[in-house]
């Protein structure tokens, strides 16, 4: 049974799901029966749980997200955490600043041609926009 899913209103979509529903049927089987995607079926269940409460999908031990709160907590991973790099003093960078040493309100124009893996440096002059006045004039030139 292929239907024109996009042309259906919400209530019609709910009725289409109910028409093929049998206990313990998966969202994939509902989607195949209607000729739509599994995501479309899951989206209807997620957005309209009250309308489809009498047609529950089987829970196969998957992690679920409740509408009221955050996801169920996962077990803590034992991977080591990498510490954030220390802030580098301003004195060391007279021709540019690394991105991690920059603060808001500083020019983000790149000033070196760093290769992958090398440190990229940026202008760092005080500004109220993304670039300082000089670099703004270079970035936003009028076309001839």
How would you summarize what this structure contains?
The chain is an all-alpha fold and about 140 residues long. Helices cover about 25% and strands about 5% of the residues. It has helices at about 10-20, 25-35, 40-45, 135-140; strands spanning about 95-100, 120.
- What percent of residues adopt helix (DSSP H or I)? 25-40%
Structural class: mainly alpha
The 3D shape can be described as: elongated
In angstroms, what is the radius of gyration? 27 Å
User: Which range does the strand content fall in?
Assistant: under 5%
Spans with pLDDT under 50 lasting ≥5 residues?
A: none
Query: DSSP helix count?
Result: 4
Task: Give me some keywords for this one.
single chain, 144 residues, mainly alpha, two-stranded antiparallel sheet, 4 helices, 2 strands, 25% helix, elongated
What does the model show?
The chain is mainly alpha-helical and 144 residues long. Among the domains are: 5-47; 88-144, no CATH class. 25% of the residues lie in helices and 3% in strands. The protein contains four helices and two strands. A two-stranded antiparallel sheet has the order 1-2. Helix 2 (27-34) crosses helix 3 (38-47). The longest helix is centred in the first third of the chain and has 11 residues, at 10-20. The mean pLDDT is 79.
């Amino acid at each position: 049974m292929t239907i024109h899913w996009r042309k259906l209103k919400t209530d019609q979509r709910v009725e289409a799901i109910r028409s093929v529903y049998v206990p313990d049927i998966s969202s994939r089987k509902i989607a195949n029966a209607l000729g739509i995607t599994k995501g479309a079926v899951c989206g209807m269940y997620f957005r309209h749980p009250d309308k489809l409460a009498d047609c529950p999908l089987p829970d196969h031990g998957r992690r679920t997200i409740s509408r009221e709160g955050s996801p169920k907590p996962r077990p803590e991973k034992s991977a080591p955490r990498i510490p954030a790099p220390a802030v580098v003093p301003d004195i060391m960078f007279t021709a540019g600043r690394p991105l991690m040493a920059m603060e808001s309100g500083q020019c983000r124009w790149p000033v070196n041609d760093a290769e992958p893996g090398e440190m990229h440096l940026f202008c760092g002059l005080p500004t109220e926009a993304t670039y300082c006045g000089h670099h703004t004039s270079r970035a936003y030139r009028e076309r001839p």
